[in-house]
Amino acid sequence: MLRPLLLAALLAGLAGCVTPPMYSWGHYEDLLYASYTSPDKATPDLQITQLEADLQKARAANRPVPPGFHAHLGYLYYQVGKADLAQQEFQTEKQLFPESAVFMDRLLAKKP
Amino acid sequence: MKARLLLRVLLVPLLGLLLAGCATTPYDYTNYRAHPPRSILVLPPLNESTAVDASYSYLSTVSFPLAEAGYYVFPVAEVDHFLKENGMPTPGEMHQIPLDKARDILGADAVLYLTIKQYGTKYVVVSSVTTVTVSGKLVDTRTGLTLWEGTGTAQDNSGGSGNIIADLISAALTQVINSSVDHAHAVCRLTNVQLFTLKDHGLLDGPYHPKESDK
User: How confident is the model at residue B21, as a pLDDT?
Assistant: First the structure.
């Protein structure tokens, strides 16, 4: 499952004269794909487990996660009824990327 | 076997890079440079291919090239949910969202409209070709100006060796393997390299790009 991402990273590296990815992507896009192709398997709980592990790895390596990562994690927390954790993630997305403020405020105002 | 596949998959876009690099004139970035966006709202793609799952398969690969180019990319799944909740159930309807709404409600500087032209694998006797072709248009939400347009295509060929019996067996095997996984999904990432990252044709560096923030 990781191979396409690695390959893309490799190609992006070649095209841009060997620059490694800026962000630590973890399983973010793989999980998006899985949630569309096999929603019964890629449950919110499973996605949360994976993304939390990805986040720990990124933090341990002192690397940033990409735009959307915290927002997606927050949305998943909402889906399993963890509203407090969801709000934290939306706030984090907003702090890391002020461009997301309008949308995140909209999600923050929403009641689960 | 794996190494051969990797080599083939790598060679095709590299060849494409070289061809694209010398055959066409550079894109006119006048509007893009005059209205550089910080954030990009990616709408779920329109699908002109016959593969029903193409739109969301491709959508799940688009955040990577845009974010790595230095832009804030709105979370694609949440944008999709949000638009659906607000009376836009299909990509076709989402593409009709007025630009001022994209700006006021979501805070987007630019909207990326994508259309999948081709997505899937064709079998021609003993060989198969998986093609993904996507066109994109980036529009400024303040002025409505088109900042950038482009088309990217990538192929993974599984060609014949010249030995007809061996090729027939191998084609049958390839067909079985390819139908068990969405081979085109892997090709999407190669298409993205063609669409977004080519010099003089792809996207300009966004505000989070290391080169851009050095300035």
Answer: 47
Contact of A75 with chain B, judged by CB distance below 8 Å, is answered with: yes
Q: Are A25 and A51 in contact (CB under 8 A)?
A: no
Task: Give the tokens for residue A1.
Answer: 């499952």
User: φ, ψ for residue B15 (rounded to 5)?
Assistant: -60, -45
Q: Which domain holds residue B33?
A: 29-200
> Within a domain: residue B161?
yes
Q: Rounded CA gap, B164 and B114, in Å?
A: 40
B215 inside domain: no
The CATH number given to whatever domain includes residue B124 is: 3.40.50.10610
Residue B155 in tokens: 């192929």
A102 vs B14, B107, B185: nearest CB: B107
Query: Binning pLDDT at 50, 70 and 90, where does residue B1 land?
Result: very low
Number of domains in chain B: 1
pLDDT tens for A7-57 read 555 555 555 455 789 999 999 999 999 999 888 999 999 999 999 999 999
Q: Is B84 inside a domain boundary?
A: yes
Model's pTM, two decimal places?
Answer: 0.82
A16 to chain B, minimum CA–CA distance in Å? 8
In a mutational test of the B interface, the residue from A18, A63, A97, A106 whose CB has the highest number of chain B CBs within 10 Å is: A97
Q: Is A22 in CB contact (< 8 Å) with chain B?
A: yes
Determine, yes or no, domain membership for B5: no
At B113-152, the pLDDT tens digits run 999 999 988 877 777 788 999 999 999 999 999 999 999 9
Q: Could you give the dihedral angle defined by the CA atoms of residues B135, B51, A34 and A10, in that order, rounded to the nearest 10 degrees?
A: -40
Residues near A51 by Cβ (< 8 Å), separated by ≥ 6? Answer: A26, A27, A28, A31, A69, A72, A73, A76
Predicted ipTM of the assembly: 0.85
Evaluate whether B158 touches B174 at the Cβ level (below 8 Å). Answer: yes
Biggest CA pair distance of chain B = 62
